[in-house]
Specification:
By secondary structure, this protein is mostly helical. The protein has helices at residues 4-12, 16-36, 41-61, 70-91, 104-126, 130-140, 145-152, 157-177, 179-183.
Length: 187
């Protein structure tokens, strides 16, 4: 298995073989995700290109490390970009007036910031106890507290809520104590 930086270096060098390999390994997974979430092939191509551009620009600026495999990382970047796109389109209102197009560099900067926040969050989530990781995973999947009671054999939903609260508090505390946190606050 190739190291993630192999792909990042290939993007920077515009290595046709590496770019083709990235497309072969990842494009169809992203296409499947976006298609299942109200998108088209053209949307997927745009998101995939934006993700590759974002990764290349960021890697050129700050040689960061990817701790998972490249395909999983790229998929997460694409997923985040698509979710942002869906949220943005929810807020758009049809208007017949001519409007000035906005600069895409601002969107790319926000996407990079969002990705860095996600990485910080994921890093500290992995550092929690095994029990807290399980609790938080279920919480983020919106598992009802009644289900958590059964899974963890708690006495009541109140206990489940308390455990979620404590794990969230630990996670927040650790993230906020990281020196990168203040740099990643909203611009």
């Amino acid at each position: 298995m190739k190291k993630p930086n192999y792909f990042l270096e290939g993007l920077i060098d515009n290595n046709e073989k590496v770019v083709k390999e990235i497309y072969e390994n990842s494009f169809h997974k992203v296409l499947s995700f976006i298609s299942k979430n109200s998108g088209s092939r053209a949307d997927t191509e745009d998101i995939f290109q934006n993700a590759l551009l974002q990764l290349a620009v960021r890697y050129k600026k700050e040689k960061f490390e990817i701790n998972t495999n490249f395909e999983a990382y790229l998929f997460t970047v694409c997923k985040n970009l698509w979710r942002r796109e869906l949220n943005k389109s929810k807020r758009e209102v049809t208007n017949n007036q001519v409007i000035e197009l906005k600069d895409e560099s601002h969107d790319i900067a926000l996407s990079v910031l969002e990705q860095q926040r996600w990485e910080l969050f994921a890093e500290y989530l992995e550092q929690l106890s095994e029990n807290c990781i399980k609790i938080m995973t279920l919480f983020f999947k919106r598992t009802p507290y009644s289900e958590m009671v059964k899974i963890f054999e708690y006495n009541s939903e109140t206990v489940a809520r308390q455990r979620v609260f404590k794990c969230k508090a630990k996670l927040k505390e650790r993230i906020k104590s990281d020196k990168r946190f203040s740099a990643l606050l909203e611009l």
